[in-house]
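Amino acids appear as letters; backbone shape is given numerically. Here is one record.
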Amino acid sequence: MPIWVSLPERYANMKSNFLKAGILALVLVSTFGCSPASSETGHPLEGESADESGDQVFRAKQSCPAYQSKNKKTNPGGIQTAPGTSYEVIELNRPDKPDWARLRMPKAKPAERWMELRCGELVGEPASNTADSDEEDESAEDDSQEKNTCQLAGGADDYTFAVSWQPAFCELKSDKRECKIRDPGVYQAKNFTLHGLWPNKSACGTNYGYCKGPKKSGDFCQYDEIELTPQVKKNLARVMPSVAAGSCLERYEWYKHGTCQKTWDAGQYFAIAARLTEEFNAAASPVIAKNVGRTVKESDFYAAIDETLGPDAHKRLQLKCQKGDLIDVYIKLPKQISNDSTLRDLIQKARPAFRSNCGGKFAVDAIND
C-alpha cells in the first residue's frame, strides 16, 4: 500500500497513544501529586554526592516537581527529582513536623527548589546543625554488598578538607565543652579550626565511612583513644579546640573518616590536617582576622584566597552560612595527598566544586559576643 494512503491511520494511532499517555499522567498527578519523569513532564535532576559536607539530605523516592515557589507552584525548566537521588537540604518550612524542604539542585536554574517531603525522606542531621553536620545518622541499607563497598578503605575519589569558624559553630552547639571558652586571645577567636579531612567516594555519598567498625552512638569519647605523639597532639590541640577541651572530636573524625584511607596512621593523618589548617588560615587571615565582629564580602574573601593559594583557588571552596554567620568552609582536594603537599598545590590539582549559601556576604562572629 502506498505510504500516503496509510498516513491518516498512522496519525490516528499516534493520537490515541498520546491520549492514553495523557490520561495516565493525570491519574498519577491526582493520586500522588507527582508526575512521571520524562521529557514531556519535566526533567529528573540528579543531585550531587552529599558525602563531603555530611549535611542533611533529602532522598527522593518518587519523581516529583521541584518548585521555585511552593505557594505559586512555579517550576522553571520543569525540574523533577530523580528517584533514589539525594539532594542537599537548605532549610525546612518549619522546625516541628515540616512538610516541605528547600533543596539545592545545582543543575537547575534557579538552583534552590522546594520539595514536598512525602516524595522522599530526610537523612542526616537537620540543616540548622551545619557546623557539626558530619554527625548524621547513616541511612539504613539493605544491600549488604553496597554497605561493604562503602566501608572499604582506600576507595576514595578525592578528599574534602573541612574547617569551621568556631565562634559561629558555638552559637549552635553551646553545650560543647570547647564552646565554654570565650577568651578573645585564643587561637579559635581569630582563626578557622579543623573540622576534618574526609575521603570521599562518590558512589557511596554520605555512607562512605567507618571502615574499621560501626558507628557508636552517644558521646565521641566512646571511641578508643588515638595514639599521638606529644608534638602532634600539641599541634592538633591548637587547631582543633575539642582536643584541648577533652570532647574527643578527633576520635570520631579518625574512626569515621580517617580509617577509610590507607596512606597514613592516625598521627600522620592529623599532622597533615593540622598543617593544612595553618596554611588555610595564613591565606584567610588578611580578611578574616581583621574583620571579627563585622561583615565580609564574599568577593573580598575569595580575592585573599586566590592571592595566596593560586588562581581560582576559591572555586574549590564551599561556604556554609547559618543566619548570616559563616560556619564552615569545605575545600575540595585531590585523591593523592603526600606528607609534604602544600595546600596551594593540592587546591590547584583539585576539581572545581564551588558552592555558597551565604548570599554574597557573611558575618565573622566574635567569640565573646
About this structure: The chain has nine helices and 14 strands. Residues 1-16, 18-43, 46-54, 127-146 have pLDDT under 50 and may be disordered.
